[in-house]
Specification:
CATH superfamily of the largest domain in chain B: Glutaredoxin
Strand content of chain A: 15-25%
Order of helices and strands of chain B: EHHHHEHHEEEEH
Number of helices of chain A: 14
CATH topology of one domain in chain A: Rossmann fold
Largest sheet of chain B: 5 strands, mixed
Strand content of chain B: 5-15%
Number of strands of chain A: 26
CATH class of one domain in chain A: Alpha Beta
Number of strands of chain B: 6
Radius of gyration of chain A: 28 Å
Strand order of the largest sheet of chain B: 3-4-2-5-6
Largest interface: A-B, 24 and 22 residues
Strand order of the largest sheet of chain A: 16-15-24-23-22-17-18-21
Structural class of chain B: alpha+beta
Distance between the termini of chain B: 52 Å
Helix content of chain A: 10-25%
Oligomer: heterodimer
CATH architecture of one domain in chain A: 3-Layer(aba) Sandwich
Chain lengths: 537, 177
């Protein structure tokens, strides 16, 4: 550990941490653009310059150095003394801001970044209200640098975060800085556009409104958005994300810094993978033998179906397929409900969608330990969690393949099957095997051949409408919050399972989690990433 | 969208399948390999070789240089465009370079540049359709006492007034010492 003095206050930090990071983490307000904790340091924006005390070579006295020093590039050393509040430092911040604003258009009213723009904030804090520039401003054309990203060069401050991201994290090198000095621009080589699977991140790390997400362009003003903390359900990495929503709709997803799991990034599959939530094809009401019924009737029917099947041979003919898209709490509740009626019911971990292989970034890497980001081949968030729940409950268990094989032989009289996938998942094999099961309860987001022939079909909610816990591929259990209410006519899965389990009131994930703690070791240490200082995310 | 958008999703010039860098050009570039620790470091000499051979460095050439030196094309573009010496498009037989530094600016470089633009009917960093002339500006030509000055290929013209432009350009030897 090192002790350094910032603006006269002693701050403890790890030796060698950039002074800028130490200062921002300690709550000092230091402006900067180019520094990002996940990228190499280039010290190009010149906003974070500081004064430092050093030894005068002539007298040997400790004096404030006459020259300003970039704090991002200076590692903290024990006993160091720096300041950000001197007239010199302030003067530099004003001068640099004036330079950045020389050619910047005054288009905040039509800019997507307005409201979360570092240039706006800094020009309020460190800049001038009036520009001394009398010459006409340089106006550059916009560039479509990729199918999902737009570059509005006028607004760029050339911090080069996006360029470094493509080189260091994505490893695909699409973006570059062309020309130099006042002619410099961000660009992509013609015909080799920004098309890597992490490209959405360049929009996030752009401190100004230069890089824009075509999907989010002109959709919402950011100050109307409400943010919920969630976990991405698209692969078993389990990236922590923010869901930005307003008026009952999701508008965009952003990564939430989590050094244990996804660091600062998420992939585009996750970022743009929420569209199905607002599909008009969803199952929206419980259906009993193809007819719409009320929730009370549906839940009574579920119990009526379960009771006789559960009595025969202690319920050996009953199976419950717990989807890896379910949260641990939901899997627990459903397993409990089924086991209460049929003590010998088989617990099955549901269908696990898989891609051919994990995708490692920077591209071309093969060593998982060195990867800066991994998109996992397992395209579901909670296989580990559902398996842990099944293990904790004991009794008859089966894998999904085993279950289908047994179902084909006519072992099961009743199966409760949970889907919840964003895409069509019922294969020919699956529906053939399940045709041998005489009674089906299907709980799914979208209608399928299974829900069509089910005795009882219950609508499932998308993850943005639920709350619970996902356990990722490495066994890290992360809770997620509900962002939106379920669509009209639907109930949160956990809510109706809660009722079926005989519990009263509103479902809260914490309450169910408490009951599970003794049995499911995975849920004992929930991991919620600590909030990071502004700009360090 | 109402604004003008440059599309980077399509190639600037579609490749016709034939490689631009012949074995001979590649051999010329390869001669620099022993002088540097990495292939990447040969990028600038390679750009020189290509411009000397073809008169410019086209996008196609940049791609091929990138392949040859194992450098992504975007980085070749990044490095190349940093130097105004390298041309992407057609370069005229005679390149006029007008100084835009302080002393030339004070002595009226803008009027000179405007006269050239009008005379040649092209703007900065462009080439006349007949391939005769190219026009560009540079930061300093190192002849501050002679401002405004301009360079035509290797020859420096000092204290050029806008009225002189037609006379100077009419001289077939204006680019020779």
């Amino acid at each position: 550990m090192a002790m350094i003095i910032i603006n006269g206050r002693a701050v403890e930090c790890a030796e060698g941490t950039p002074v800028l990071k130490v200062a921002v983490d300690a709550g000092f307000d230091v402006p900067f653009y180019c520094f990002h904790p996940g990228l190499k340091i280039v010290a190009s924006c010149r906003l974070c310059l500081m004064e430092m005390r050093s030894k005068d070579p002539k007298t040997g006295e400790m004096v404030w150095s006459p020259r300003l020093i970039p704090s991002c590039q200076t590692p903290a050393r024990d006993g160091m003394e720096v300041r950000f509040d001197s007239p010199n430092v302030r003067q530099n911040q004003r001068a640099v801001m004036e330079d950045y604003l020389l050619n910047h258009p005054l288009d905040c009213p039509v800019c997507d970044q307005a409201g979360e723009c570092w240039l706006q904030d800094y020009s309020m804090k460190y800049g001038n209200a009036l520009s001394r520039m009398t010459e006409p401003k340089t106006v550059n054309p916009k560039k479509s640098v990729g199918s999902k990203t737009l570059l509005y060069q006028d607004r760029c401050v050339l911090c080069s975060r996006c360029v470094r991201f493509c080189r260091e994290v994505a490893g695909t090198n699409e973006l570059c800085v062309i020309r130099r000095s006042s002619y410099a621009e961000i660009d992509a080589f013609p015909g080799i556009p920004l098309e890597n699977k992490l490209q959405g991140n360049v929009v996030d790390i752009c401190p100004v409104g230069a890089l824009l997400d075509k999907d989010f362009l002109y959709k919402q003003r950011v100050w109307y958005l409400k943010t919920s903390k969630s976990i991405c359900p698209n692969c078993s990495t389990g990236c922590t994300i923010c869901i930005d929503h307003n008026n009952g709709r999701v508008w965009r997803l952003r990564p939430r810094t989590n050094r244990k799991v996804n660091t600062w990034w998420i992939c585009d599959e996750g970022r743009f993978g929420w569209k199905y939530v607002h599909s008009n094809q969803r199952l929206l009401a419980p259906m009993l033998k193809g007819a719409r019924v009320t929730w009370d009737a549906a839940l009574a029917a579920a119990q009526q179906l379960l009771a006789p099947a559960g009595k025969a041979q202690q319920g050996k003919g009953v199976a419950v397929v717990l989807s890896p898209m379910m949260a641990c709490e939901e899997a627990w509740l459903l397993a409990k409900v089924v086991r209460a009626a049929a003590p010998q019911a088989t617990l099955v971990t549901g269908f696990v969608p898989k891609a051919s292989a994990d995708e490692l970034f920077p591209v071309g890497l093969t060593d998982q330990a060195k990867a800066k980001f991994i998109i996992r081949a397992e395209k579901c968030p909670n296989r580990c969690g559902v398996e842990a729940v099944c293990k904790a409950l004991g009794g008859p268990q089966a894998t999904f393949a085993d279950f289908l094989a047994k179902a084909k032989q006519g072992t099961f009289a009743l199966a409760w099957i949970v889907g919840g996938y964003s895409q069509e998942w019922v294969t020919r094999d699956c529906s053939d095997a399940l045709s041998k099961v005489s009674q089906l309860i299907v709980q799914d987001i979208f209608p399928s051949s299974l829900s069509a022939r089910a005795d009882l079909a219950l609508p499932s909610c998308a993850w943005v409408e639920r709350e619970g816990t996902f356990v990722n591929h490495a066994g890290i259990a992360q809770p997620f919050d509900r962002a939106l209410p379920p669509p009209v006519g639907c109930q949160q899965d956990s809510q109706y399972l809660y009722r079926l389990a005989g519990m009263e009131g509103l479902y809260r994930a914490e309450k169910v989690r408490e009951q599970m703690l003794d049995k499911v070791a995975e849920l004992r240490d929930l991991w919620t990433p600590p909030a990071e200082a502004r700009g360090m995310h | 969208m109402a604004w003008q958008v440059i599309n980077r999703e399509i190639a600037a010039a579609p490749a016709d399948g034939k490689p631009l860098l012949t074995e001979e050009v590649k051999a010329k570039i390869a001669r620099f390999f022993p002088k540097y620790e990495t292939r990447r470091a040969v990028l600038i000499p390679a750009l020189h070789v290509v411009q000397e051979t073809f008169g410019n460095v086209s996008y196609q050439a940049m791609k091929e240089i990138g392949e040859f030196l194992a450098v992504p094309p975007s980085e070749v573009l990044d490095t190349m465009s940093f130097y105004s010496h390298f041309w992407t498009g057609d370069r005229g037989r005679k390149v006029i370079v007008v100084c835009r530094s302080l002393s030339c600016q004070v002595m009226g470089h803008e009027a000179l540049l405007e006269a050239l633009r009008r005379h040649l009917a092209i703007s900065e960093h462009e080439t006349t359709p007949d391939g005769q002339w190219s026009l560009m500006t540079e930061e300093c030509l190192g002849a501050c006492e002679h401002g405004p000055c301009m360079l035509i290929n290797e020859r420096l013209h000092a204290k050029v007034r806008p009225d002189d432009v037609a006379r100077i350009l009419a001289d077939p030897n204006c680019d020779k010492e």
